[in-house]
Amino acid sequence: MDLNFLKLFSVSLLFPARQLALVTPCLLMLAFAGCGRGEAPQQNAVQAIAAAERELEEQAAAAARPASRSDEEQAATQVASKEKPKTQSLLTARKGFTTELIPSSYEADDEAPVPPASANLRLVQYRSPAGKLAAYVSPDPEDGERHPAVLWAHGGFGGIGSWFWEEASPQDDQTASAFREAGIVMMLPSWRGENDNDGSFELFFGEIDDLLAAREYLAGLPYVDPERIYLAGHSTGGTLALLAATASHQFRAVFSFGGAPDMEVVLANGGYGNTPFDPESKQEVRLRSAIHFVNAIESPTFYFEGEASNYCRDARRMEAKGKRAGAPFTACIIEGADHFNILAPLTKFLAKEILADRDEVCQISITNERANQVYQQATRDYLKRRAIAVAELPIIDLTPAALNQVEAIIESQSLDPATTFLMADLTDGGWNIEFIDADDFDSDTQQKRQQGKLTIVVPQRSVPRTRGYQIDFVDQGGQAGFVFLDQYEE
Hints:
Layout: E1 3-5, H1 41-64, H2 69-83, H3 90-94, E2 122-128, E3 131-137, E4 147-153, H4 177-181, E5 185-189, H5 206-219, E6 224-234, H6 236-247, E7 254-257, H7 263-268, H8 282-286, E8 301-306, H9 312-325, E9 329-334, H10 343-356, H11 368-389, E10 397-398, H12 400-412, E11 420-427, E12 430-437, E13 446-451, E14 454-459, H13 463-466, E15 469-476, E16 479-486
Parallel strand pairs: 4-5, 4-6, 6-7, 7-8, 8-9, 10-15, 11-14
Antiparallel strand pairs: 1-16, 2-3, 3-5, 11-12, 13-14, 15-16
């Protein structure tokens, strides 16, 4: 079931713009022509000064008149030439540098479980510079063919596990099953320090070496086409995908779902709570930030993220920087989407693109507009299916735990249950619940239902979306709050 936690309050993260002072010094240069043999030095100096004065006058005149198109083009060319950044890959930048690890709150998951036969995956070990690491890999289809493959970098921290073969909500599908269902070979690796692997957690440093080692393992399988290996990942796995794109050109294409382009921004806002290095070290942070190495990207690389994410601004910055260098990096910011619900529709779309990509070089080309079209169409189709399936369910429902909690709040605040209604609303911004007075109920724009002694109200415009949801109340580990459970499952 889809679990959406109620936002009891909103926190706005303000990223202060860096004040860039562009200082243009005015340099007065007096150039004296070199003295040739037999020439008078004083005469040469006078001539040089006169020539310099004429040149300054001509420049002043040119600046005073409106720039012609050719002038503008020439100026733009000169600026572009000066600004064209040098190309340095991540691996080149890391040469001679050793990350210094410090204690952190990171905890690894338990040993990676063996997949059931129905998962169509097998548990293997691959070797990286850190030692032996666990991974799930698609078995040989035994058809004598070499197939395209996707190396999927998992999200979160700790390792790989059973969620890869368990049912997932289309609102948060981190299984990457769309690729397997399309017949694409998959490798789902874990990294150093995860599960019961060798090595230590390094947060986007040594894990890049593991990822590249996983690619070598995948390319060596007899049923994989080594020229058609794609890299994809979500969240922290999306960050690894971005970094790998700047470190290697061996992937046919790279797809990052919600990775962090700039670790400096992440750490400035608190990080993940498990940083294993000194966050004040500029070099440690820089070597974990793909945005600084976008110029080195050679494989077509596509970034996808819901517009609600704080990473969108950094992705656009990375795209602009890449364009100046001619790097094949495209940022697709999906309107009305979040960090999770982009996965199901876009992985299905990418699976089709991969199967159709059979030329000698990668032909996949995805624009921001196309990615948005795919997501919006998938959303419309999902809402239609859902509306049909939940048509007979209540406009909203409370579990016994949630009902008891709401009634306790009414009693503690000395409210009259006969005239106090609970308003539940679901918008693009998420869920909102609040108490309203019975006099504020409008039968023309709102619907209501009775549950026990409580009257629940839903705005008419929200009924198609709230129908089929349950409000629950949970108290886990000292953190209590209302959650919303979608009873519709596909």
